[in-house]
Write a structure and sequence with these properties.
The protein is of the alpha+beta class. It is built from 3 helices and 12 strands. Helix 1 packs parallel to helix 2.
Length: 174
């Protein structure tokens, strides 16, 4: 499975789990290793480019509060509070079929931690949960984009701003 880091129209994928050449088992890459890789990738792109981070959450592999906190802090400090963070629910398949699906409570905890670290836009994927995929104004809390799966049901962003309080909304809204 992979975690994605997108800057502008560029996609950089990092393997979160890899096969070890010594024992052919699946080995997790640590949060420290992921953050070092993010440092290298983000240094190559200008700060005025749109950045989005996607991270699958896998039980007992990368679901600790320290992992959520470390990633969230890195994003706030290096890319800014507006950087969208997508936590995605894992479902067992292929070489990771022996692992359990990610509990909904774990994703909700990840979101709460990321928000407490200062990120404004934290989304939950592969989970049917009211509001988990929606975009809210960081200033007034008004729901700006209502999503269900990959469908946008409602978009209240007007010229890149909140339709209620006129605060700018990070992203490309054309």
């Amino acid at each position: 499975t992979t975690e994605d880091f997108r800057i502008g129209d560029q996609l950089r994928m990092m393997l979160f789990f890899s096969l070890s050449p010594l024992d052919s088992s699946i080995q997790p890459i640590t949060i420290e290793s992921s953050l070092r890789t993010l440092d290298r990738i983000s240094a190559a792109f200008p700060r005025d480019r749109l950045a989005i981070y996607f991270r699958p959450i896998i039980s007992d592999q990368n679901d600790s509060d320290a992992d959520f906190r470390g990633l969230s802090r890195w994003l706030v400090e290096n890319l800014g509070r507006e950087t969208p963070l997508h936590f995605s629910r894992f479902f067992p398949m292929y070489q990771m079929a022996h692992l359990p699906p990610t509990p909904a409570a774990t994703l909700k905890r990840a979101r709460q931690i990321a928000r407490s670290e200062g990120l404004y836009h934290v989304y939950l994927g592969n989970l049917v949960e009211p509001g988990a995929e929606d975009t809210y104004c960081r200033q007034c809390g008004h729901r700006l984009v209502h999503r269900y799966g990959y469908r946008i049901l409602e978009n209240e962003i007007q010229s890149g701003r909140c339709s209620k309080c006129k605060t700018g909304v990070y992203g490309i809204w054309e």
